[in-house]
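Before relying on records like the one below, remember that each one covers exactly one chain. Contacts with other chains, cofactors or solvent are not represented anywhere in the record.
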Amino acid sequence: MLHGPDNTDAVMHRGIAEVEAESVALMVGAAHGLATDDYTIPYVASWASSVPGKTPVEVVQSTAERVRGTAVKILDQLETSKVGDGTPPGLDRDALAQARSTGRRAPGASTSSGVRSPSKATVEAVAL
């Protein structure tokens, strides 16, 4: 579904495929009340760090739409009750949107370099 031959990014680097697959699992699990973020966030951050020429945040952001679309397709096909919308635990979408609209740092941003920590940035990018 997500890693067919038409997805050249995933074929070219295993890190991208791992980021996408685990991010989809995070969103589907979150929609069913499963908190997998303790394992998933470091795992995704680690694989995102392995992609040459991109920061972990860039990797997650570049895969976000494919991840979201795949998670939605899966959730739409499941007949189970969902307890959430796939938003990972700890993500404050309103605060993130407000920070973006005002040009301020988003929650979890570092004060020294303006770069978000990989784990928080991973959650924010995946959930968008």
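The radius of gyration is 14 Å.
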